[in-house]
Amino acid sequence: MDKKLVDSLISYGLTENEAKLYLSLLRKLEASVFVLAKETHIPRATVYITLEKMKEAGLVSSLKKNNVLFYTPENVNRLKALLDEKEKKLKEILPELSALVDTDKERPDTRIYIGEEGVKIVLEDILDTMERENLHNLYAASHSEIMKYFPKYFPNWLKRREALGIRSKLILPEKERGDHVFDPNEFRETKFLPDQFPFEATVEIYGKKLAIFSLKNNEVYSLIIESRPAVEIFKQFFLFAWEHANT
Q1: Pair type for strands 209-216 and 60-65
Q2: Sheet order of strands, 31-32 included
Q3: Among 19, 27, 17, 26, which residue's Cα sits nearest to residue 48?
Q4: Which class is 109-244 in CATH?
Q5: pTM surpassing 0.90?
Q6: What whole-number distance in Å separates Cα of residue 215 and Cα of residue 213?
Q7: Domain extents for the chain?
Q8: Which long-range contacts link 152-157 to residues 24+ away (Cβ below 8 Å)?
Q9: Which is nearest to 63 in space by CA: 27, 19, 25?
Q10: Which of 90, 129, 174, 182 has the fewest Cβ atoms within 10 Å of its own Cβ atom?
Q11: Are 197 and 179 in contact (CB under 8 A)?
Q12: CATH 3.60.15.10 fits 3-77, yes or no
């Protein structure tokens, strides 16, 4: 079973059992509950219940041969139509869902991502948040090692950031003086912390959010903290360090 295809179908709203059964049926075009249970390692009773639900949703159909029930998959375009319908319904109720949120109360939120795609998700959140909230000041203490993992994406991200008119105050470790990855320009002021204050992670402060990127054992961890009081403390520490950092 192709795990990537299963995961993709799950991300679009199918359950794991539905995804496995649908993919098996696409390959076989027609199969009994017994055969599908054997191939997918899903209990026969669960296979039957799941297929009947999929039948109600229009993903599969059934027919009897020699008193044995066989299932066949509907055209993949039917799957797309069902997903489009779900997305349409969600968009229709989004205003009502948003109205349920008490915007006067700020709830702390934390999200963590693992891997290179997680870094991109967090970096995109920085640009999206700053553009949406019309923010123009980014505060960062950075370590260039992580960003060197993205030789194409990161330079492009910097250009997009500058196109939004976002200026940054950037603190680097003294040992990175002379590294041209973060050369100062009209959108970036750079200062350096002395060697007795080393750091290896990257921190980005934007609005009421704080992003942290950390590299450990060749695995990248990315974290977003959304809490105005907590982020304000980090911001004040940053500004204090900025005032005492080397130019």
Answers
A1: unpaired
A2: 31-32, 68-73, 60-65
A3: 17
A4: alpha beta
A5: no
A6: 7
A7: 3-77, 109-244
A8: 153/120, 154/123, 157/123, 157/127
A9: 25
A10: 90
A11: no
A12: no
Task: Kindly state the tokens that stand for 15.
Answer: 């359950």
Structure tokens at 104: 């006067």
What is the chain's alpha carbon radius of gyration, rounded to the nearest angstrom? 25
Residues 6+ apart with CB under 8 A from 98: none
